[in-house]
Amino acid sequence: MKLEGILAKYGKEGKKNRVFISFGDAGGSPAQESTSVLGKFVLFGARARTITFDLGVIDKSIENRNDDSKPSIEFAGLVAHEGSHLFDKNLFGNPVSYAGSLNTERTAFSAQSLVNKGLNALSEWGLWNPSWAEADRDKLRQAGVEHEAKRDADRIWGKK
Length: 160
What we know:
The protein is an alpha+beta fold. The protein has one domain. It has five helices and three strands; from the N terminus they run αβββαααα. The model has no long low-confidence stretch (mean pLDDT 85).
């Protein structure tokens, strides 16, 4: 998936495309994506997606950081992460299995890692580090993506 595709999925400001951005409680996460039905019948109603960014959680993450990552780049990564979920949700909304959640989180963290990789900026989530040896970068990026995807899927499904 290309980052340009994610931006296109968000759409242009003010254009009615059933994608909404809000700021507020995201269930303890920095951001979350949710689905709602627009219309009378679930099977026939149009679906809207809302992406909520919790600036309080994001601010705490920034304050507690002990590395050289950059808040604006980390936020751009979150935008890419949540935007990738716009592609991954099936007709009925959220994944209905652990494997489905793991796959959507893997795709989302991969998109997030590409922001850091493209800007060659340290990721606070371990998705990219400019100091990694050139020969190891792709392997370490994929390992970081897999680790974070599993952590999120475990949290979503109540696994430890």
